[in-house]
Amino acid sequence: MKLTITKPAVDWYKNEMEIKSGDFVRFYVRLGGCSTVQSGFSLGVDKEQPKESGVKVMDDGITFYVESEDMWYFDGHDLAIDLDKDGETVVFKYE
């Protein structure tokens, strides 16, 4: 699995979550919501250090990652994180 995040999405997280260089942002599986890859589950986001990252990407000194225990959720898909066309909302694309 590959994890990518666009610069506008990085900037959005920096502003919304008040993160800075050296911080960690975890994408994790949560019960409920909707997703195109797993029915009844969706992605949550939190600011915390990894225990055992399965995939990670660093941008502007910030590490964005998914724990190994949550890799099943992606079912072989890559995760691309971007902003919507209005630049106001984060969009998760499963490719």
Description:
With 95 residues, the chain is mainly beta. The protein has one helix at 7-17; strands spanning 3-5, 24-31, 41-46, 53-59, 62-67, 79-83, 90-94. Strand 6 (79-83) and strand 7 (90-94) form a beta hairpin. The model has no long low-confidence stretch (mean pLDDT 92).
Offer a concise description of the structure.
With 95 residues, the chain is mostly beta strands. It has 1 helix and 7 strands.
Biggest sheet strand order reads 3-2-5-4
Anisotropy-based shape:
globular
C-alpha Rg (nearest Å): 13 Å
**Total number of helical segments?**
1
Can you tag this structure with a few keywords?
95 residues, mainly beta, 4-stranded mixed sheet, 1 helix
Mind sketching the topology for me?
Blueprint: E1 3-5, H1 7-17, E2 24-31, E3 41-46, E4 53-59, E5 62-67, E6 79-83, E7 90-94
Parallel strand pairs: 1-6, 2-5
Antiparallel strand pairs: 2-3, 4-5, 6-7
